[in-house]
């Protein structure tokens, strides 16, 4: 087994019984994972992300055989192996698992973890109390409610519960627009601090000029360029988008030295992890004096700019990969109202002038 310097951390190579070189992800406390794709390919990077996020190479569970039947520990073990949990993308699985695992580890008045409680004993009043204990963090409480509801629906389907008590509860009202949408002035401030040719600038350009999430931008590389287009399979949803490489993005890519398998490499010569990339973008934004801005806010800014340019929802979805109009509406809520109202007024007046011209033409024809 050999650890080559050019391989990512925890990845080693070894010859199989036929002498062919294979690659494997190994880390203490986690199950080993044999790669199905060669290093440098998009498939390899996707597998690597799944290993780092604990999906392809999950934590080795100690004492699994001692889990009591009918408990939430038992239910969660089954749930993590079901399509209900596995169908969403790897990144989404990490988020959902984190919410459930934090809840499972909490200790109730009985002195036992929630994971040790019997599924059949959960009632709506218990859920209401658990959510109330999370206040004032309403968003986190609502997220837990969603995940518990999905878990209990699964429990009903496999006959571990007769009903879903979470359905009888109500979410907390949250008055928030979510991640701040970058304004054009904020984009200009970032660009002034991080000029073309820097990794910080390329990170912004990859998100802004593609409308993709930070998790997808951090893994983009030469392997994503096909026929002069950028082809990305989104980590969260599995949706594949094929996008023209616009001139500002092309200039940024060409001006930034390529030092690895992906466009954005860390100071240590490795691709960023999901958390590491978010933290780095946070640093770059702070350096530009933009504490209110974040990586995800750039995706919203891209959608906003498309909306202000008069693009339809279908056109915006073709870029962002969203599947519903309601999702696009959330992302374009910050579109400039004055600009859009002016455009709507121009279209209205143009339509009225056309109708008036048609009426006049018919009148002249009738008079003749």
CATH architecture of the largest domain: Orthogonal Bundle
Distance between the termini: 94 Å
Largest sheet: 3 strands, antiparallel
* Overall pLDDT: 87
Order of helices and strands: EEEHHHHHHHHHEEEHHHHHH
What's the CATH topology label of the largest domain?
hpI Integrase, Chain A
How large, in whole angstroms, is the Cα Rg? Answer: 26 Å
Strand count: 6
Class by helix and strand content?
mainly alpha
How many structural domains does the protein architecture include?
4
The CATH superfamily of the largest domain is known as Intergrase catalytic core
Count of helical regions: 15
Topology overview:
Elements: E1 11-15, E2 21-25, E3 33-34, H1 42-52, H2 72-79, H3 83-86, H4 90-105, H5 124-132, H6 138-157, H7 184-193, H8 199-208, H9 214-217, E4 225-226, E5 229-233, E6 240-244, H10 247-255, H11 274-287, H12 295-308, H13 313-320, H14 325-331, H15 337-367
Antiparallel strand pairs: 1-2, 2-3, 4-5, 5-6
Helix pairs in contact: 4-6, 5-6, 8-10, 12-13
Concise summary:
The chain folds into four domains: 1-60, no CATH class; 63-176, DNA polymerase, domain 1; 184-335, Intergrase catalytic core (hpI Integrase, Chain A); 341-368. α5 (124-132) packs antiparallel against α6 and α8 packs antiparallel against α10 (247-255). The protein is 48% helix and 7% strand.
């Amino acid at each position: 087994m050999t650890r080559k310097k050019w391989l990512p951390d925890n990845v080693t190579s070894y010859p199989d019984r036929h002498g062919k070189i294979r690659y494997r992800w190994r880390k203490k406390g986690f199950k080993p994972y044999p790669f199905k794709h060669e290093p440098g390919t998009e498939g390899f990077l996707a597998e690597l992300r799944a290993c780092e996020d604990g999906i392809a190479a999950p934590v080795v569970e100690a004492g699994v055989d001692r889990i009591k039947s009918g408990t939430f520990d038992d239910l969660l073990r089954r749930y993590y192996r079901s399509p209900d949990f596995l169908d969403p993308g790897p990144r989404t699985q990490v988020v959902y698992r984190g919410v459930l695992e934090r809840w499972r580890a909490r200790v109730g008045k009985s002195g036992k973890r929630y994971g040790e409680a019997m599924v059949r004993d959960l009632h709506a009043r218990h859920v209401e109390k658990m959510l109330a204990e999370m206040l004032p963090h309403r968003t986190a409480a609502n997220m837990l409610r969603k995940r518990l509801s999905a878990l209990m629906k699964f429990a009903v389907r496999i006959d571990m519960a007769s009903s879903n008590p979470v359905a009888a509860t109500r979410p907390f009202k949250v008055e928030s627009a979510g991640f701040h949408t970058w304004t054009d002035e904020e984009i200009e401030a970032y660009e002034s601090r991080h000029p073309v040719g820097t990794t910080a600038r390329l990170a912004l350009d990859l998100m802004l000029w593609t409308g993709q999430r930070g998790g997808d931008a951090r893994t983009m590389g030469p392997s994503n360029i096909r026929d002069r287009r950028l082809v990305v399979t989104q980590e969260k949803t599995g949706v594949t988008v094929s996008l023209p490489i616009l001139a500002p993005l092309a200039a940024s890519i060409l001006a930034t030295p390529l030092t690895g398998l992906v466009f954005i490499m860390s100071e240590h010569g490795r691709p960023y992890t999901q958390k590491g990339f978010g933290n780095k973008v946070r640093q770059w934004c702070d350096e530009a004096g933009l504490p209110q801005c974040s990586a995800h806010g750039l995706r919203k800014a891209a959608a906003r700019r498309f909306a202000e340019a008069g693009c339809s929802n279908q056109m915006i979805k073709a870029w962002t990969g969203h599947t519903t109009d309601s999702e696009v509406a959330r992302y374009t809520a910050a579109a400039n109202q004055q600009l859009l109202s002016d455009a709507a007024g121009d279209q209205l007046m143009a339509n009225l002038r056309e109708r008036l011209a048609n009426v006049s033409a018919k009148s002249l024809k009738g008079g003749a």
